[in-house]
Amino acid sequence: MDIVEEYLKAGTNKGLYYGGAFQKSFGEQSIVVRNPATSEVFTTVPDAVENDVDAAVFAARAGYEIWSKIDAIDRAQYLRRFADIIAKNIPKLALLETLVTGRSIKEMRAQMARIPEWIEYFSGIAMGLEGESNVVKGGYVTITHYESLGPVALLTPWNHPILILVKKMAAALAAGNTCVIKPSELAPVSPLVLAALATQAGLPNGVVNVVTGGPVTGAALCGAEDIHYIDLTGGTATGRKVAAQAGERLVRSTMELGGKTPIIICEDTDLEGAIAGTLFAAFVASGQTCVSGARFIVHEKIYDRFTKDLAARADAITIGDPMADETQMGPVISMASQDRCTRMIAQAKADGAVQISGLEPAVLQAPFDKGFFIRPTILKDVKPHHKLFLEEVFGPVISVTPYKNETEALRLANTGNFGLGVSIWSQDIARAHRLSLGVRGGVVWLNDHHRNDPRSVWGGVRDSGFGKENGWDALKAYMTKKSVIVRTAPGHDDWFAGSTRYG
């Protein structure tokens, strides 16, 4: 039985993964992992203690001494083998992701099919990373080249356990670093499997390591002396803590944090296309992505028709068993998430918003009647001071607000402190581009949403974080640029014997 099949069996707990093998935790505590579609216990993983983290970082250092010395061309060959092994396991990895996250199998098959692209892309561009040289004043040549950093910490979320991990890991490994991964305690299984697959692909022991656990484990990893970069995707509150810890140690970091994604619908939009596209934006992954379309800002001329048609489409979404091919939307990740959605809906209605979809609670047959399901929910006439307008829900609950002109649309879109994703829907490309220049966000889609590619730079501003994923920016973030200065002028200078040359 291969490693993915082992972990597809409920109850599998092989321990932590570092140094190229599964390892028993030094601690005695475990974390329960539930299937959110049924609330049943799927498995447990170790709650790693500081000694576990130290051992994993030590293994990453040993792996780094080998991996960093391999030429980028040869590293690319290892990484392509890793991508090939992932590709062969896509059907089983999709099943595993669905079991742990509750995402529909249709979604996970589509997402998993693209995972190898990130590894192939970064292994490719790393081979083309070139230094520079310049002849400078005074008879000198400066030569620059890029070097890896060392062991790095990757802190990954539960909503895209494989995708977000691979986005980070592909860049880090292609740059010549080794990784210690701390996945979310809600979905920690897939990263363990990926680490084992990396070893199967022939990557040296210690190149990919995983410690499972909660906030204490994460703090221990971020504080480890031999960690040289911290890359987190998570909530804004967690990001502030991790960034402060990184700042205290003067360790570079990337923070991809929360969002309250505005969607601007102009009066000249292709209404049918906009409804189809923004329905996907709002409710794919049960609304549990950092760029989920959460705050619809719709021109008053088309407001009534748009909200009516969007609500009808939302109520037609099929929810239920995530493993069923006909299911279009699964549960949210946990009871806490379900409760937060319910509270936000109640608060919005108390504030005066009008609920126009998801009016009837989800009624499902056992065992899914115990799952953490929330129907796709739309509330219209939400005001910019309402909690639903300002705060992230991270679930299938969206607000709709009318606007009169572009100035008001931008004011509404830029309300609050987030700045990650935005989408703008208009058939007038000049208008759409004009709005894109005025809106606050690190990723802006015009007449589309949620599209991602290893070549498309991704990252936010303000409370949505800093630093970039994807593209050359991500690869170079995992490296340091060294300058070597070569004297070419004849003879030598002697300052203390009377030379007047300085600098």
Features:
single chain; 503 residues; alpha/beta; Aldehyde Dehydrogenase, Chain A, domain 1; Aldehyde Dehydrogenase, Chain A, domain 2; seven-stranded mixed beta sheet; 17 helices
In short:
This protein is of the alpha/beta class.
The CATH superfamily of the largest domain is Aldehyde Dehydrogenase, Chain A, domain 1
Number of strands: 20
Summed over residues and divided by their number, the pLDDT gives a mean of 95
CATH topology of the largest domain: Aldehyde Dehydrogenase, Chain A, domain 1
Overall, the morphology is globular
Fraction of residues in H or I helices: 25-40%
Global structural class = alpha/beta
Number of helices: 17
Query: Radius of gyration, Cα only, in angstroms?
Result: 25 Å
Q: Order of strands in the sheet with the most strands?
A: 14-15-16-13-12-17-18
Care to describe what's here?
There is one protein chain. The chain has 503 residues and is an alpha/beta fold. The chain folds into 2 domains: 3-257 and 470-483, Aldehyde Dehydrogenase, Chain A, domain 1; 261-446, Aldehyde Dehydrogenase, Chain A, domain 2 (3-Layer(aba) Sandwich). The protein has 17 helices and 20 strands. A 7-stranded mixed beta sheet has the order 14-15-16-13-12-17-18, with helices on both faces. A 6-stranded mixed beta sheet has the order 9-8-7-10-11-19, with helices on both faces. Helix 10 links the parallel strand 10 and strand 11. The longest helix has 18 residues, at 50-67. The model has no long low-confidence stretch (mean pLDDT 95).
